[in-house]
Amino acid sequence: EPHELGPFMRRVQAIQEQGVEVLDSTEVQIASACMIMLNAVVIGLETDIEWIGWNWVENLFLILFTTELAVRMLIITPKSYFACQDNPELVWNLFDFTIVSMGLVDFCATVLAPNGTSPGGFATVFRIIRLCRILRMFRIIRFLKQLYLLAYGFVEAAL
Asked: Which CATH architecture has domain 7-158?
């Protein structure tokens, strides 16, 4: 049959399916949630505590979030990641992509700027975008709601 997948493509599809299972696993979701919460704490600390190392910490989070985004897009493919139909995650995907992309733009602008800070009025814009990472906390709340519903279902089934 002409539409049958060859052995290589069947293997790629199997790896993608396994990758999706890993990405959707409770462990990965909890790790992602912890990363988001820790980043929110760091953003809060940055505003109150003067420390020269905050840029390094921010860059570490940028690397982690960029890696998470790249792996997710690699596994589910950019076409599926940005699909408008049958994609309940589209809004979160666009939000994550925008936040990470703007973080990368901020990083590049900072590296290319002569004094090592975002040029001109962009500094304020990028600071606001960095604060938008805190909005990712809403994703955690949604995840916690799913855990609550799962636990509630177990309790109901046990009674």
From this structure: Up-down Bundle (1.20)
